Amino acid sequence: MSVDVEEWFQVGAFERVIAKGDWNGLESRVDHNTGMVLDLFAAAGVRATFFTLGWVAERHPVLIRRIAEAGHEIASHGWDHRRVFTMTPDEFRADIIRARAVLEDAGGAPVTGYRAPSFSIDARTPWAHEVLAEQGYVYSSSVAPVRHDHYGWRDAPRYAFRPLADAELIEVPVTVAEIAGRRLATGGGFFRLLPSALTDFATRQVNAQGHAAMFYFHPWEIDPDQPRVGHAPLRSRVRHYSRLGIMAGKLRGLLGRHEWGRVDAVVAGLGRIAPRAPTPGVGVS
Length: 285
Prior knowledge:
The chain is an alpha/beta fold. 35% of the residues lie in helices and 10% in strands. The longest helix is centred in the middle third of the chain and has 19 residues.
């Protein structure tokens, strides 16, 4: 179980209509929304991994400590939601170093996991896993093995793999359902917009094959009262705002129907995995 901790205005859908220079002047709701997520997990007896932006941790260190003290893992989501394929290797290195320092200071524990904003590690960034391994990360959960207009690496493995032959770094892709040879995304907005049965099917499908499912969502997805960005494209507004009011209830059901845990605990139990690079070729449509 994983949560991508970011503000409502930091999502990829709004990156072209809300300037980063305006972020500090917008209403912050991440503390309140993440608190509601913590309450959901506490009621269900679930511990999870919170992939958190350094930008958020710098402004809300008490929230980060609260997450850690509740028994959850603090992991990195980068500094300010910049997609990996828009950076050079040196810029990426600086980004994850900056974020990790703030997260470890606020959370009081080592940060060993990373998730790229918008799952932006793909065939365009063959160097990204190398930088993560160099920086001592144990695992990444940065690959979405699907085709999507914002992200995706269709040729990547569906399950945990070692992307580098000379490093122990593990990549744990987000879970997708596979039906008649087609891969369907299940977390985040897909879970919110589509029937819960699809995510249940995908979870049982991967569990039956001996693998753990990787589910994700965002704190802003359980906040129907968040500000509206009226000048955003219609498609972005539909994706972002639809069914926010039912998300918490859907999550309660999901938490109760399956067994969930922290990503670091799952990775620690994987054992030795042979190196397996994804098939060459960009999987983004």
